[in-house]
Amino acid sequence: MRILDILQARDWPEPSQSVGMSEGTFGVQDGGDALLRKQLIPNWVVSMRTHMIVAAGLAHPMHTGHWGAHSDSRYSRRMEAELNAAVRHTTSMDPVQYAADLQFRVATINEISILLLPDSRKIREEVSPMHIRCTPFDHAHVALFAAGVEALGLPDVHVKHRLALGSPVAGDLAPTHSWEESKEPSRPMGLDFDDLPHEQWNAFLHEDIARRAQRSAESRETAAAVWERTIEELDKGLCDGPWSLEDMNAMYGKGQWRALRRFGVIQKESLRACDDAAENCVNDASISRDKMRCEKADFPARQADRFARYMGRGSRGWSLVHGTEDLESAYRRVTTMAPGYTVVGAWDPERKETRYFTLTGFNFGSIAAVTYFNAIPSVSASMARRLLGLVCSNFYDDFNVVSLESAGLAPQDALGSLHRMLGFPFSPKKRVPAAHVNTFCGVVTDFSRLATEGVVEVYVSDARKEALDLAIVAALDLGLTPGSAASLGGKLGFTLTWTFGRFGKAALQPILVRSQAKDHSLRHITPGLERAMRFLRAAVAVLPRREISVDRAPRPPVLVWSDAMYERTAAVPARGGFLIVVPAEGDVPERVYMSQHDTPREVLRKFVPGKKQYIGQLELLYAVAPYTSCPDLFRGRQVIHFIDNTSACAALVKGYSRAIDSGLIVNAFHAYNLGLRADVFFEYVRSAANPADMPSRDAMGELWDLLGSVGLAQHAREVRTFLPSFDTWDAPADQLLEKAMGFSGNRSRSKKRKR
């Protein structure tokens, strides 16, 4: 295996400080404290003139080449190195050589697998507990996993122990070392699993399942469907039962087992059986030290950029395809060491009583399941990248494989062969063969224009839009429980990530608040929830496509500085302004636009009353003003926008604010940006270094002098400020979206000033 390993020292990315783009994500800005830790211009620059000179030489972070590799993340650097190695290896051969090489590698690993099979059988017979030995599905090839980890030096050295003995299900969960570790892990409720009263809980759950299943016709129908799904798992050998309460006490002893409630969740028009590990406190009484990293939906697009790096920027004639695979019965195949704590209770519609099923594998819904399941594909994906040279990654049990078009389906077939050898096969029914256009995690990546234009398109699929629309309509009709709110909010948040900016995230807040409610039976739709869901329903319908060029020949970014001031006792209590610098391109010289604006009283009255200070809202308002005043300057451009207020900067990056008036302004910005489609990177600047501080202080003469000192005065002009109109702050969704998508023409009217 060490001979097959393609990873070389030159594949490791150089340690570099992140420049503010989210790790492993195409064009999403870091938030939180990263706004101050990962700045393009350091805080010690306190001169306006110096700040403008340094800013003029900046490239937009999307084109710095540093996203995806953080110096403080071992996991990220290893992932980058493995993917670099796989792409380098793939592009170094012609199609015939590549096909032969891949065939040789699969055959070699298969020979190793066959040689190690007796070792895995011996481990299972002599070491594994009875419940693992008796599993009817394919057993994990423990020896092959161990050989792969040892040969490649992977960090999860205990995966072989967990596969042989079973993984922990609760309590203090040992780290896998597949990812970074949390510095201060804690139990949410301060509970210890060993102190939980298992017997009392089981008695309550036994009666409560019966009570809930019989309270209405709808409840009886749902309970029957959950029972049917569970019997299907039983037929596949993924669980055992059904057992009575007396059977369970006889098998494990009173107080020596703990059941979970099984319930149904509608996914893709069918019911999926899930287990409530939150209600029975298994999750609250567990500690997980792993900071698990999930792959992003833009994985195929990022790999197109990586292929372009090795094939040559601007080269044409090559293209990519990508396909997906799904692990069969993923969580259920990862065996546990204590099956008495993965028991599920469900209502038997024929016997009219609560019955129990024992699982050898994990419940879908526990913290331990997420950690220890994901450690398996973490190892298998590394083996695929380094031993087979496959450009692949996974989001939980979903794998994506990107390859040159000339390779056809061979890379996908090779990944399937590796997983069959490891004992974790893919589902044949869920396979999506490699093609130019495919969906990964609900987001479509289209390589159709790659060969001729060097362009990749990323957009949300119509099927996902329709599914979200149906989910929102169902919630409006039937109500929204905390569990359903968590599911809906997660899907909407994930989908909105792939628009320009963070449009619609402010509207997610009522849904996320409902998801945290303690009353699991709560369904009532409040006016705030109804407004948010109707807004999001309209928003999802118009999400735009995103075009990504892999040629890396970007236009220089537009630079923006904005500022506001508020003094309640002043004659003009509120004022704001902005400065825009559009860099020179070819024969077109630099252009500079600036504006000063006294805030009308009616605007101040739009803010939530009773506050002594409105500076945060005003900073947001005048941060949006450049885009509503001079929209054509930003259409389709990359922008670096400097603001001297950290809360305003953070709100624009996150896409929402807890304050209602601030949230409405932020939403208005991202709505406008749906029409403009600008890639805006927001950065904090100290007030002393912010040239927009001058127009906000009614010091336009000083700003002209500053522009003269940096050679920009001859290209400058003053323009009128157009604030977002009031109706866009809190307009119905259809009106707001119509304004956003229908933006055309430059509304700014020049007020050219002669000195």
Please outline the helices and strands:
Blueprint: H1 34-37, H2 48-56, H3 74-91, H4 95-126, H5 130-133, H6 142-152, H7 159-165, E1 172-173, E2 180-181, H8 198-213, H9 217-235, E3 239-243, H10 245-252, E4 259-267, E5 270-276, E6 287-288, E7 290-291, H11 299-311, E8 320-326, E9 343-348, E10 353-359, H12 367-387, E11 391-395, E12 398-404, H13 410-422, E13 432-435, E14 437-440, E15 443-446, H14 450-453, E16 455-460, H15 462-478, H16 482-496, H17 505-515, H18 527-541, E17 546-549, E18 558-566, E19 574-582, E20 591-598, H19 601-604, H20 615-629, E21 638-643, H21 646-654, H22 660-676, E22 679-684, H23 693-696, H24 700-709, E23 716-718, H25 726-729, H26 733-741
CATH level 4 superfamily of one domain: Ribonuclease H-like superfamily/Ribonuclease H
Radius of gyration: 29 Å
Category by helix and strand content: alpha+beta
Strand order of the largest sheet: 22-21-18-19-20-23
Q: Architecture of one domain, according to CATH?
A: 2-Layer Sandwich
Low-confidence stretches: 66-71, 744-755
CATH topology of one domain: Nucleotidyltransferase, domain 5
Overall mean confidence score, pLDDT: 88
How many beta strands in the DSSP annotation? 23
Helix content: 40-55%
User: What is the CATH C level class of one domain, in words?
Assistant: Alpha Beta
**Sheet with most strands:** 6 strands, mixed
The percentage of residues in β strands lies in 15-25%
Q: Could you give the distance between the termini?
A: 75 Å
The coarse silhouette is globular
In DSSP terms (H or I, runs of 4 or more residues), the helix count works out at 26
